[in-house]
Every structure is written in structure tokens, then in C-alpha cells.
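Hey L., structure's done. Input below.
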Amino acid sequence: MTADAVPETISGGHLVAKALKAEGIDVIFTLCGGHIIDIYDGCIDEGIEVVDVRHEQVAAHAADGYARITGKPGCAVVTAGPGTTDAVTGVANAFRAESPMLLIGGQGALSQHKMGSLQDLPHVDMMTPITKFAATVPSTERVADIVSMAFRECYNGAPGPSFLEIPRDVLDAKVPLDKARIPEAGRYRASTRQAGDPAAIERLADLIVHSEKPAILLGSQVWTCRATADAVDFVRALNVPAYMNGSGRGTLAPGDPHHFQLSRRYAFSEADLIIIVGTPFDFRMGYGKRLSPSAKVVQIDLDYRTVGKNRDIDLGIVGDAGLVLSAAAAAATGREDNGSARRKKWIEELREVETKAFEKRLPRQLSGSQPIDPYRLVHEINEFLTEDTIYIGDGGDIVTFSGQVVQPKSPGHWMDPGPLGTLGVGVAFAMAAKFAQRDKEVLCLFGDGAFSLTGWDFETMIRFDLPFIGVIGNNSSMNQIRYGQAAKYGEDRGRVGNTLGDVRYDEFARMLGGYGEEVRDPAGIRPALERARESGKPSLINVWVDPEVYAPGTMNQTMYK
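Output:
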């Protein structure tokens, strides 16, 4: 460069975009604000799509959903103050669900620090408890460097979200390109795949070989680790019955001889060895109390802090689900007798329990009653799913029904909020799923209360031409809460603060340019689903379900126990 040459410069927003591109980000979910517009300008230059939504919570949920579908981190960009606080719920949901995403929030200029600038709030202080990393970017030269740092921290142990606030003058300023550190793609993160302690692997193999009645729970980390093939090989080689929860659903296809669902309580009370993979002993597991006290319990998890939390275990292994299961299977199958043949009777015993439970419930699933029995609705949805249908559950009582009946046909085809129990994720998850895999069909079952929280982003689905099949189980109530209130305070106080209007969501869909249909007769559910599929539009099938019928989980109030 000659003495009078002007050095090439780059703005903070363009440095953000370069760092996102290096991480493999191809879409950001956002709601506009003056603090963040230079990021948009940079994304255009880097070929990153900008998807603008109607509420920042949706942007954060979409980034979470995108990470779950793709295995890459998602990214949401929101403005300062209320933009960032609106996104808190989405970040918190990702935190409990172990989903890697980056939320970038705007901030007032550093030159106006503590002066009361527009939308100034202590974002980092608020985000620190619900992220793996939260920081302010202090200078334009450091923008890309700290974005890469945030992504790296997303994968520290079990995955999770990071947060960065970037002051407006840091984003807008331009610095010489040679003064900015721009980490190179693939050169600022190490592999996080750990195979576990070899001695622990051998001990797990011993436990399996000598077990007469083993059972395994394949949790969300099986999908997070993309360990489907290893999990399938493990249960087949060692003849171990498998149960699945969270994103682990679909690891084994329905009808697989090792796929079990309805006999879990029986299995966990009768098993002599229980292997928990990628699922904490939280409320979904009764904090570990629902496992037989006489069984040997093994817990495999990405996060050391999760292993042995809330319940004593016989063996804990920290590592990647796929590598651990693969190594354990190899160690066990190398024995003269791995015990798989003698477990045939145990498999048959569980299958009998499974069949009886299915047959007991089948009349409800085929019920012709009006208002429609929720079991009939979720049965029709389950029958309607294809191997390429991504199923999303967004609701309370209605989704509790679906958890017993709906079985995704392929791995990575089940999405639910996760352990935070956040309502309102449905449209955002559908949005993320369609952006990530446009060739896949997406079906989302909403409770009417859940859809009401973020349903206006149905318009975003229209605007970006993202067809999906939305089904609303409409009982004009927050029924999961209603049941608990009536049980605790009596029927005369059972409808305080939980009753909604009789909303025609099908008309809402048509108003926005989508496909909408109302169903009151259970015989009409399947034809309505078919017409929604054929429409090629975002759709809402408004199904009126019986408000006096509750899921067993709701009646047992298991979420609070």
C-alpha cells in the first residue's frame, strides 16, 4: 500500500455478518430496530437471509428450533431494551432444552453509557443466569472475535445459548480491516465429542452382559449428538428395550421390535438395569424416584453437573451419547455371551404389557363422540404422519395427549418446548423447520391457548411462503390449569383465569391468506388434514375438542410432582 492509499475499512455490523458466515449461519431471525440495522446490511453482503418476525420471542424460539433441526447454532438479532427483554423467554427455553443459539441484542452507544439512552437496560446482567456466556462487545475491532467466542461457549459441556449486546456506535463504526480480528471458519472451536472413561465403558459392558431385564431411555442428547445409528446398533446388538423422550423420539421407528412407549412405568419398576441417556433426573423423571430402587442405574450425559443430580446412580459417564453407546456395545459384544438371547423373554413380557395398554386405550382413539375426544384427534394425526413429517407439539393438555400417541417415523422429526414447558413455540419452530428443510412436511399441534401467545407470526409464514399444517385442539380453555384448579378449589372456582373465547382460528388463517377449516365431527379430521396438505399454504385446522376430557398426566398433575 502506498503512503497516500486509504486502508480498507469495515463496520461492526459487517464484522458480525462475517463471523456468522464463518459459523455456517445462513439465516437470522429478527425484529428490526435502529440499534441493529448495520447487521442487516452486513448479512446482505454475506448472503445471509434476514427473516423478520412480529415478536422477538418468536425470533429467539426460531433460532432455538433451527439449532435443533440442523445441528448448527441458530441466531436471533433483536434491538435494545424491550427487544431484548421480549426475547428472554426464547433464550430461557433454549437454556433448559440445551439448544445452541446466539442472541444478539442492541444497546445504546458507549458514548452515552449510563446517560439514559433510548432503550438502555442492563441486558448482560439479565441474560447471565440463562446463558452459557453473556457479554458486551467493547470495541469494533473485537466484534467478530467475540461473536466467535460466544459460539464457542455454546458448546461448553451440554449445548446452550449465548448472548451478546453490541452498542450502536460499536456496530456503526468502521475500522481498518487489517485491525479487526476475524476468526477463520473451522479454526476457533475444537471437537466436543468425548468417548467417556474407558474403565467406565468396560463396567457398563459388564452390567449389560449380566443383566436379565435391562431398559434404556434415549433422551434428547441422542439427537443432539446425532447418535441415532449408534443407539439403534446398541439396542439391537444387545437386545435391550428402548424408550424415547424429547428429541430422542423417532430414534427407533414405530413397529421396531425394540421400540417401546406405553410400558415405560412397568419397565422402570421391574428392570434390573436402567440406562438413562441424555435426560436429567428432573420433573419428567420424577427426579429419579420413578426408577426401581433395586435396579442398577447408569446415567450418560454431556454435562458432568447433570450426572447423579437428584438421585444416586451406580455408574455415571460423561460423554457423547453415540461414542459411549458404540464403545459399550463393542465391549459387550466381544464377550463370549453378551446376554442378548436370554433377554428374549423380557422383551416378550414388555410387549405384552405394551399391547394391553394400547388395546385398552384404542376405543378412545377411535371414539366418534362429539365434542371430539382429544385421543381421537391425536390418533388421526399419528396416522396422518409420513416419514418426512416433522411433528411439533405446542400446548398443555392437548400435547400431553399427543405424547402418549404420536410417534414420529424418523429421527429428528419430533419437536417440543423441552423442560421449561414454554407455550408459544409452535409457529416459530415450524418457521425454523421449513427454513432448514424446505422439502420436509411440518405439522404442528397447538392448544388454543398456546397458539394465542405467538400466533400472529402465522403471517410471517405466509409472507415467506412457508407452508405447514397447523392443527388447533380447541377447547376454549387453558385446560391443564383448569383441571388443577377445579380439583383443588372445587368446580365452582374451576374457571377462574383459564377460560378463553370460542375463537375461529380457521377464519384467522383465511384472513391472512392461508388455508383454514373447522372440524366438529371426528370423521372430518383426516379429510381436513389432507386438504390442508394439498393446499400448499400455511394452514390452521380448528378442531373442537371436548373441554371436559383431560389427559392422564394432567389428572395426575405429574408436572408438579
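The first helix runs from residue 12 to 22. The chain has 23 helices and 19 strands.

-- N.
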